[in-house]
Amino acid sequence: MKGESMTEQNKLVIVESPTKARKIGGYLGSGYTVMASVGHIRDLAQPSQVPAAKKADFGKFGVDVNNGFEPYYVVGADKKKTVSDLKAALAKSGELFLATDEDREGEAIAWHLVQALKPKVPVKRMVFHEITKPAIQASLANTRDVDDHMVDAQETRRVLDRLYGYELSPVLWRKVGPGLSAGRVQSVATRLIV
Q: What Pfam families has UniProt attached to this entry (predicted)?
């Protein structure tokens, strides 16, 4: 539109999958850039990824077990280009729409995108249950904030998985065989069966 800058006109929409990005981009048309995060962009740090200054607190698990189980997240090496591309697109945008799945993982992906991209523009959460033009338009008209309760639920599950797996997997390696892992659900299910 005449008199408006590109930043005012363009809106960045981030979804999880490149296939969804193409389809939704076709529905939204000009004025929208639709890109994919390709799933999670950050995860709990592996011990080798924790900076020396934080090793004492986060070194073993990527979680500070002595300080409220605070997680330490890092952008994975395989996601650095994705994050860089998203930041570049965001710099040209006047609004950010997070259109990740409406479940714990999708909500966490949306939250991590905000943390990693540090947007200086309004952020809105889009949710939809089908990829049709009417559903996408309805989602744009009925945005909401990121659901912090769902993010907390996902973070709790992820931290428990890390703590449980990192403590029990070495026991399995010694007692049963190398390469096995112990998940919180698998371990309890195995115990119930045995």
A: Topoisom_bac (PF01131), Toprim (PF01751)
